[in-house]
Specification:
Elements: E1 6-10, H1 17-30, E2 37-41, H2 47-54, E3 60-63, H3 80-85, E4 90-93, H4 96-100, H5 105-117, E5 121-126, H6 134-148, H7 154-157, E6 161-164, H8 178-201, E7 206-209, H9 217-221, E8 228-231, H10 238-255
Parallel strand pairs: 1-2, 1-8, 2-3, 3-4, 4-5, 5-6, 6-7, 7-8
Helix pairs in contact: 1-2, 6-8
The chain binds 2-phosphoglycolic acid.
């Protein structure tokens, strides 16, 4: 069964609304979603103007964080309902930069559930902090995934997107070898199948993230169990993000 590829941009804490609108316009004017899906995740302050820019195209909108509660006394936080009302369809949960700032597996699990309950697709990030042997890394990934998805029912499993982002590869220009990626993604696919059953596990989108760019996209996106990418730096300029999406489109056809 083929899984639709997702090319997702995580803009992190970059850009004013004006920057976001300009970039979103370039993407939406130069991309057709016939073969793969494209998603951008700007900062909160850019969501509404960017949603307006995207409204006639196929590029989707997501946020970078969500609060676990639906409403209440949580100064400075944003709920899933608020994101949905801004036009978001996706939200990133458990990004390593938030985990490094203190977010725990329990909090990530609660946010991932809140996203689903609020009608958003969570992109749940996992990844080992330092370079390690494959078996050791797999142990870390299994622990993180089980803890972060512990409250997700089998019926909801296929609505979660999982992004494997080795922390040491994020923003560094370093990427795992293709053999290591093949091993990691085969492991992740088996893990989600073991956890959610063949039917659900074989439908879950698995993304790679960490220094993915227009030059290495072909090698990385060719890996069978990689169903797209979560892209930071290379998503901040339309030409590089569009180039990755173009490569993804070619592989989507070959993998189908
Ligand atoms: P990068 O970031 O592509 O700049 O390495 C990826 C991410 O943090 O999601």
């Amino acid at each position: 069964m083929s899984i639709r590829t997702l090319i997702a941009g995580n803009w992190k804490m970059n850009g004013t609304p004006e920057f976001g609108v300009t970039l979103a316009k370039e993407l939406t004017q130069n991309f057709t979603c016939d073969k793969v899906d494209m998603l951008i995740c700007p900062s909160f302050t850019s969501l509404i103007p960017v949603a307006d820019t995207l409204k006639d195209g196929c590029v989707k909108l997501g946020a970078q964080n969500v609060h676990a509660e639906a409403s209440g006394a949580h100064t400075g936080e944003i709920s899933a309902e608020m994101l949905k009302a801004c036009g978001c369809e996706y939200v990133i949960t458990g990004h390593s930069e938030r985990r490094a700032a203190g977010e725990t597996d329990d909090q990530v699990a609660a946010k991932t559930c809140a996203a689903l309950e609020g009608g958003l697709t969570p992109i749940l990030c996992i990844g080992e902090n330092a370079k390690m042997q494959p078996a050791e890394a797999q142990e870390v990934l299994e622990k993180q995934l089980r803890a972060s998805m512990k409250n997700i029912a089998v019926t909801e499993g296929s609505q979660v997107v999982i992004a494997y982002e080795p922390v040491w590869a994020i923003g560094t220009g370093l990427v795992p070898t293709i053999d290591d990626l093949k091993e990691a993604f085969t492991f992740l696919r088996q893990l989600v199948i073991k956890t959610y059953g063949e039917e659900v596990g074989s439908k879950i989108r698995l993304l790679y993230g960490g220094s993915l760019n227009a030059e290495n996209a072909a090698d990385i996106l060719a890996v069978t169990d990689i169903n797209g990418g979560l892209i930071g730096g290379a998503s901040l300029k339309a030409p590089s993000f569009l180039a990755i999406a173009e490569v993804a489109s070619q592989y989507a056809e070959r993998k189908a």
